[in-house]
């Protein structure tokens, strides 16, 4: 028989088989006995926190999270995969691992970018026993996945993404240009002047995503980070990537991973909306380093500089801005 779930008031308990159990649960078990439906008594669980198909479901916190056993199994699968002789696991092994990690996305949806490079390597492959080499991007992402599994906060099913924009705890705006990165919020403007000779050269899409990462990193450093965060960006590509959690370029995915890392560790509920460039005035002025114009239009606002969190990105991209 399929699993059955219900609820009852904590104090509404009755004795059944020598144990105090929720009244509604006992009614069901007595009914099963009356129709001779077999069941295992030790599998009839109750409590504010239950383990269901490998996930902890916490009714008090309103959250789903992985059990320690599930985490250990996933970490073991990743380590076994990465230690494959010659670092060329067969396609079938790649598929098995991605299947296992995909299961964890039920409670860790922001971990999806950690599988992007794996699927990129598997794309177009059909021979189940043919070896596929593990490249640097896949190794890095799976190492990230391993570390993330042991520190991530699960999904809050009570209010995740169910709030109205007007209920946001924090609202910010970001922008990027060929001159700088900027973000603004609640009377604060922060700006970073780009390196005039970056190596390697990156596109504006990279910079727009980077500006969002910088704002998120900034607010995550607060002593009490806001939970419901709304960010406006005039980069439609950035908004689409953050809403789908899929990036077609490795450089863009590296920033998406950094954003995901912050989300998974802090429990911030992020929402990103597109805003027309003409309405993104403050962030646009700062990203173009037009400080005099900014001060003229917004004299009461405080402007500061900031440093991007380079340490959150792979080494190859840290000098690209």
Describe the structure.
The chain is of the alpha/beta class and 321 residues long. The chain folds into three domains: 1-47, no CATH class; 66-156, Reverse transcriptase/Diguanylate cyclase domain (Alpha-Beta Plaits); 165-317, 2-Layer Sandwich (Nucleotidyltransferase, domain 5), CATH 3.30.420. Helices cover 37% and strands 18% of the residues. The protein has ten helices and twelve strands. Helix 2 (68-82) runs antiparallel to helix 5 and helix 6 runs parallel beside helix 8 (250-266). The radius of gyration is 24 Å and the shape is flat. GO terms for molecular function: nucleic acid binding. InterPro entries: DNA/RNA_pol_sf, Hepadnavirus_pol/RT, RNaseH_sf.
- Summed up, the helix count is 10
Radius of gyration: 24 Å
Order of helices and strands: EEHEEEHHHHEEEEHEHHEHHE
Structural class: alpha/beta
The percentage helix is 25-40%
Portion in beta strands: 15-25%
| Fourth CATH level, the homologous superfamily of the largest domain | Ribonuclease H-like superfamily/Ribonuclease H
Q: How many domains make up the 3D coordinates? A: 3
Q: What's the story with the biggest beta sheet?
A: 6 strands, mixed
CATH class of the largest domain: Alpha Beta
Strand order in the largest sheet: 11-10-7-8-9-12
Query: What average pLDDT do the residues reach?
Result: 92
Number of separate strands: 12
CATH architecture of the largest domain: 2-Layer Sandwich
Under CATH, the topology of the largest domain can be stated as Nucleotidyltransferase, domain 5
């Amino acid at each position: 028989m399929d699993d059955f779930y219900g609820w009852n008031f904590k104090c509404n308990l009755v004795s059944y088989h020598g144990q105090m159990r929720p009244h509604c649960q006992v009614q069901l078990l007595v009914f099963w006995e009356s129709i001779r439906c077999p069941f295992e008594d030790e599998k009839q669980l109750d409590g504010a926190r239950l383990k269901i198909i490998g996930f902890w479901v916490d009714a008090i916190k309103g959250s789903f999270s992985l059990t320690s056993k599930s985490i250990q199994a996933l970490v073991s699968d990743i380590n076994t995969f990465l230690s494959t002789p010659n670092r060329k696991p067969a396609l079938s092994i790649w598929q098995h691992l991605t299947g296992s990690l995909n299961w964890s996305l039920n409670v860790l949806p922001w971990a999806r970018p950690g599988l992007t490079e794996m699927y990129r390597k598997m794309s177009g492959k059909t021979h189940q026993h043919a070896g596929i080499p593990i490249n640097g991007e896949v190794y890095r992402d799976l190492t990230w996945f391993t570390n993330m599994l042991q520190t991530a906060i699960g999904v809050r099913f009570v209010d995740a993404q169910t709030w109205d924009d007007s209920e946001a705890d924090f609202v910010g705006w970001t922008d990027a240009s060929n001159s700088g990165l900027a973000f603004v919020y609640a009377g604060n403007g922060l700006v970073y002047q780009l390196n005039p000779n970056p190596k390697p050269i990156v596109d504006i899409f990279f910079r727009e995503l980077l500006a969002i990462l910088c704002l998120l990193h900034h607010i995550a450093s607060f002593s009490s980070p806001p939970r419901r965060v709304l960010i406006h960006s005039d980069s439609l590509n950035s908004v689409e990537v953050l809403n789908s959690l899929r990036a077609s370029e490795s450089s863009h995915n590296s920033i998406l991973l950094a954003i995901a890392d912050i989300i998974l560790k802090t429990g911030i509920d992020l929402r990103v909306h597109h805003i027309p460039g003409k309405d993104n005035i403050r962030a646009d002025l700062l990203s173009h380093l037009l400080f005099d114009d900014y001060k003229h239009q917004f004299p009461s606002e405080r402007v500061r500089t900031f440093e991007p969190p380079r340490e959150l990105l792979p080494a190859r991209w840290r000098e690209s801005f």
